[in-house]
Design brief:
Phosphorylase Kinase, domain 1, about 250 residues, globular, Muramoyl-pentapeptide Carboxypeptidase, domain 2, four-stranded antiparallel beta sheet, alpha+beta, about 30% strand
């Protein structure tokens, strides 16, 4: 068995961090950013996004509109929207600086390719190539982050163009149970290392559980050969995912 020490400072890192009106982003200087064609994203997120577009053969019909943003870029976008669109529109569609998922490098806005793409609200309908993307995105770890019936929890209007990488199997479970990230983060708190959430996908058994951080550190013990991933939730603890592969 091996003991893993979880540090409180790391609750702000990982693919499951919750960034919203209530929980701000904490800058991560070690974030691996990949930039191609004027779009930047967290490296793994970008590579998986390209895999989806290649798999549906739509690398030209779907445009990558906006990915990673610095705090300064988000501030400029917010101020420009206030000036051009007013406070009501801006509060519905543009997050405050440090409260935008785009600063994590895990979020991408997509648009149907055209000569004129709206930067704030790009067209990404529920038909055709856009729906083809949406139909398989969750199999690669992506979710449509802001949906109409979740606005009371996300405090962001319906955004069919905005996708967030959370990873597998979390995207699968959220899609099946129709949970937004706020709901999923709370739901996982019901599962512990002794009674995890078990989920089967592609010959793998995933065990997911929550570890609260009550002091500066917390510890968990896993098997020596355990394959696992740990993400902070950006609030009060960690989500641990352990998996085994079956032939």
């Amino acid at each position: 068995m091996k003991t893993i020490i979880l540090n409180k400072a790391d609750i702000h890192k990982g693919n499951l961090i919750l960034i919203n009106y209530q929980y701000p982003y904490h800058n991560n200087p070690d974030l691996p950013i990949l930039k191609e064609d004027n779009i930047s994203l967290e490296k793994r997120t970008y590579n998986l996004l390209k895999n989806i577009l290649q798999d549906i053969n739509q690398t030209h019909q779907i445009s990558l509109v906006s990915g990673f943003r610095t705090e300064e870029e988000q501030t400029l976008i917010y101020k420009d929207s206030l000036y051009n669109n007013g406070i009501e529109f801006t509060n519905r569609y543009v997050a405050l600086p440090q409260h935008s998922e785009h600063q994590t490098g895990l979020a991408i806005d997509l648009g149907l390719n055209s000569d004129h793409i709206d930067f704030i609200r790009p067209e990404f309908p529920h038909v055709g190539v856009c729906q083809n993307f949406r139909n398989i995105a969750y199999q690669y770890g992506f979710i449509q982050r802001y949906e109409e019936d979740k606005e009371a929890m996300t405090h962001i209007a319906n955004e069919p163009w905005h996708f967030r990488y959370v990873g597998i199997p979390h995207s699968m479970f959220m899609m099946e149970k129709h949970l937004c990230l706020e709901e999923y983060i709370e739901d996982i708190k019901n599962y512990s290392i002794h009674k995890p959430l078990n989920y089967y996908f592609q010959n793998r058994l995933f065990s997911i559980f929550y570890v609260p951080i009550l002091n500066q550190t917390a510890t968990i013990t896993l098997a020596d050969n355990a394959v696992y991933q740990i993400s902070g939730n950006n609030i009060d603890g960690f989500i641990v995912t352990v998996w085994r592969t079956y032939a």
